[in-house]
Amino acid sequence: MIAKIGRGESLYGALSYNHVKVQQENGQVLFTHNMMETPDGNYSVSQLSRSFEPYLIANRNTEKPVLHISLNPDPKDQVSDEKYKMMAQQYMREMGYGNQPFVVFKHTDIERTHIHIVSVCVDEDGKKISDKFEKRRSMKVCRDMEQKYGLIPAIGKEEPETRVLFRPVDYTEGNLKSQMASVLRHLPEYYRFQTLGEYNALLSLFNITTEKVEGELHGKPKHGLIYSALDENGKKSGPPFKASLFGIIAGLETLEKHFSKSKESLKDSEAKLLISNAIALAMKSSVGELDFKELLASQGINAVIRRNDAGRVYGMTFIDHNSKTVWNGSRFGKEFSANIFNDLWQNGVKSEMDNPHGTSALLPTLSGDFLPAEKPHDLFGFLETIGLEAVYDISGFIETTGSLFPNTHGENYEEFAFQKQMKKKKRKKRL
Predict the structure, then answer these.
(1) Which of 13, 52, 214, 269 has the most beta carbons within 10 angstroms of its beta carbon?
(2) CA 237 to CA 329: how far, in whole Å?
(3) pLDDT beyond 50 at 180
């Protein structure tokens, strides 16, 4: 079993992400602890949030008080709902959150059935609950539960390789060829992308870029790829390396076959709908480019933005680490074109469109006081948050830690009211 722990600021974001699964019949509220019950057992986001409200109001100075945890058994494990409830309670108890309010959601939208737990990491007095040695303690709890419930152990021989695989290249360390090889030899096995541009967007997260080279050998035209490392500013650094140095999987011919195979498999992909919904909502909700990227990153989606020398956006690529897919923004329609993003970020013009697939995505603008500092490759902060230990299945190791998904006008209005109410009550408390 793998436990992934995420922390954030948006309680509504974490609850909404899980609640939309319930609405789409891909999830259910499995269990609640120390929370207000409802007569019929059905919950809305606003109803669930009320149980956490006193803790958030009391919060002293914890910047990210919202906990979003997922517990992921091996896909071959058969876990009953009753076992999931017991596992959630044991995990929260042994991690120090046993007295907290929390809600457990069961997700069935992918082959690997798993649970999500939403809670807060501040107690009733607003004091942060200690997260000292959290990853170590979490792994111990998971190992204990594997034995107790007869689950397939998560730690295997592949763990050391996994850690190397998801490490970005550092051009200052030397041994560039070795660093790049650990990425290039494996990425196409786990991600689907349809063009060299999409592949390059994915590589940029690992501080790598590639480009075509053409020439003649013995009078015959030849073409291939060379790879280079990138520095902290996204500029090439160090010598270029021929694709042949990394094996056949990094070569142009193999990648072109991968493009075709990916195109076929993504024709009717459900991921496309989910990602476009997430992008549309982030566009409506965000305050500037950094906020937009942060909202998407909280859902395991990276936005790679391409600009010309004048600073104008001419291309957008979105990398979804949940479905392991890469999408040029144009694949989602003209409402995600570069011109739309230029108007959004340079002129503050918000698109008037509803969610492109019919679900209204209008949300009040969120406060920008939590915006992070810009980082060239912010995926790795997200990975650090959930941890890379004990990854038994690379194809499923990243899962969204909760963010804003489309919802009804009523729920969105309640979120806005909830945020205003929280700020008002905090001001009163200080007085």
Answers:
(1) 13
(2) 28
(3) yes
